[in-house]
Every structure is written in C-alpha cells, then in structure tokens.
Amino acid sequence: MAAINRPPSVERVLVASRARVSDRDADAVLAVTRDVVDAERGSLERGDAARSIEALADAVVATLEGFDDPSGGDGSVAWDRSRVINATGVLVHTNLGRATWPRAAIDAARRATEGPLLLELDAATGRRGRTGPPTSARCSSHAG
C-alpha cells in the first residue's frame, strides 16, 4: 500500500513564515496560509512532489507581497480605480433602483437639504399638515 502524502499543518507553515510576515494582519496571514496548504494538498492528490515547509512559507510570503504589488514588481498590472456603487442598500432599502440620478435631481436634492424643509408642517399655523398627496407633491417639486 502506497504512503499517503499529506501537507504540513497550517500551524507549521505559519511558524515557518511568521518572522517574514509579522507586520501583516494576522487574519490575512492565516487565510493565505490556509490557501497555500489547501493548494499543496491538491497538488499531492494529483501525485505532484511535496514541497518543503520552507517552500510553502515562501509561497505565503510571495502571495502576501503580491497584494502590495500585483504586477510582480514590473508595473504591468494597471489598477482599476473605476468608481462603483454597492447598490445593495439602494435596491433593498430605498427602492430607487440602480440608475444614477440626473443632474437636475442631484441639484434639487442639494438645494432641499441645505436648510430645513417643511413637508408635514403648515408654516402658517405651525401645526402638522396633511400627509399623503400634498407631501408627495412637495417632495416631487423639490426633486424635479
């Protein structure tokens, strides 16, 4: 019966790489180490030769350094700095959908929020006014 090759424990790889990654976030180091050990496990299952603990620790360090410079040092990878919106809250909480606002609506919202806005208060009497269609009409007139 053939011997089953198993990768070293995550702890042993962590110990081997700890001095070179001590300035890193511990959770990130642990996650990367687990990924490296999992990849080694897959390699061993395919019949590849086992790498040493030091080689696995090198892989952990290289992966973490790759987060700092994804080009591998040659500057060949351009960062995508596109502006994006996480629209989860927009869709779930406001029902506004994913479309961006037109400039007129943005300007109207800015004007409406620069000071107090009486939506449900009758300015003449100081009492609470009707809600519903009158309030909706006021909101619509301010939002364009």
Give a brief rundown of this model:
With 144 residues, this protein is an all-alpha fold. It contains six helices and no strands. The longest helix has 20 residues.
Question: How would you characterize the overall build of this protein?
Answer:
With 144 residues, the chain is mostly helical. It has two domains: 10-68, no CATH class; 101-143, no CATH class. The protein contains six helices and no strands. The chain has helices at 10-17, 26-45, 53-68, 88-94, 103-113, 133-143. It starts with 9 loop residues before the first helix and ends with a helix. The relative contact order is 0.08.
Report the radius of gyration as a whole number of Å.
Answer: 29 Å
Total beta strand runs: 0
How many H/I helices? 6
Tally of individual domains: 2
Q: Give the terminus-to-terminus CA distance.
A: 78 Å
Low-pLDDT stretches:
none
Structural class: mainly alpha
Most strands sheet: none
Helix fraction bin: 40-55%
Please tell me the overall pLDDT.
Answer: 77
- The rough form would be described as rod-shaped
Order of helices and strands: HHHHHH
Question: What is the beta-strand fraction?
Answer: under 5%
List keywords for this structure.
144 residues; mainly alpha; 51% helix
